[in-house]
User: Fold this.
Amino acid sequence: MKKLLFLVAFVGSAALGGACNNSLKDACESFVDARNACEDLNGDPPPVYGFNLCDNIEPDCEDYYTCAATAPCEENKSDGKFRLQAGKVEDCVQPENKECTDADLRP
Assistant:
């Protein structure tokens, strides 16, 4: 009986953990899709590197991804490049000491 209860608890926690991870991955993928659609307006070739932002996600970044995916896409006045303007969405800031984007790898 104890083994059955342990198995049920283990399967239940794995299912709940998987749902949480799917939500986080969905938020990340929505952000990446919005960012890519915006940056496609620049006409530049896509960056070439073997890194997928959504393969290794910080759980604290989910709220940032959700709000940043809704940010306006505007032309940056200093370099003329289109970028998502997450700073224009109320309370849309990256968590402190977390890497939520791959901006350091992108042109």
In short: Residues 37 and 73 are 9 Å apart (CA to CA). Helices lie at 2-39, 62-68. The chain has a mean pLDDT of 80. Residues 2-39 form the longest helix (38 residues).
